[in-house]
Design a protein that fits this description.
Blueprint (H helix, E strand, L loop, with lengths): L16 H6 L12 E5 L4 E4 L3 E4 L19 E6 L2 E6 L6 E3 L2 E2 L4 E2 L5 E4 L2 E7 L1
Antiparallel strand pairs: 1-2, 1-10, 3-4, 4-5, 5-8, 6-7, 6-9, 9-10
Length: 125
């Protein structure tokens, strides 16, 4: 009489259904990548949620101490394709890797953002 097959891991511990399902890829759930802004003096600003606003206005997520920053200057947004930056019609503009940001641009680890006179480096994990 054959015994039923019971998968196990090294060491002989049985593997349950939940263990098997947890290793299967989730096709419908986009991978969330954590984004951190690093200032020119090394301060780390964790970006929380799927959208993050940089500006002087009281409800912005990050409010740099600069008179050149517009009330609502730059938007960072996360979607299925990753993180993106978009200028929000600011007076001084946003720069992405030393080029003016004229349309939504995808961000990569190590990219540089210039928000008026504030320099930020992108760190993705």
């Amino acid at each position: 009489m054959a015994l039923p097959f019971r998968p196990s891991v090294p060491g002989g511990q049985p593997v349950g259904r939940a263990d098997i399902l947890s290793t299967m890829p989730q096709a419908h759930a986009p991978k969330y990548v954590a984004l951190t802004l690093v200032t020119s003096v090394g301060q780390e600003i964790p970006v929380t949620g799927t959208s993050f606003t940089i500006g002087r206005q009281f409800d912005c997520d990050y409010r740099p101490d600069s008179v050149q920053i517009s009330r609502r200057h730059t938007l960072l947004i996360h979607g299925p394709e990753g993180w993106f930056a978009e200028d929000m019609g600011s007076a001084m503009g946003t720069v992405h890797n030393q080029r003016p940001l004229t349309a939504r641009q995808r961000l990569a680890d190590g990219d540089e953002l210039g928000v008026a006179d504030v320099k930020l480096r992108i760190r993705l994990r």
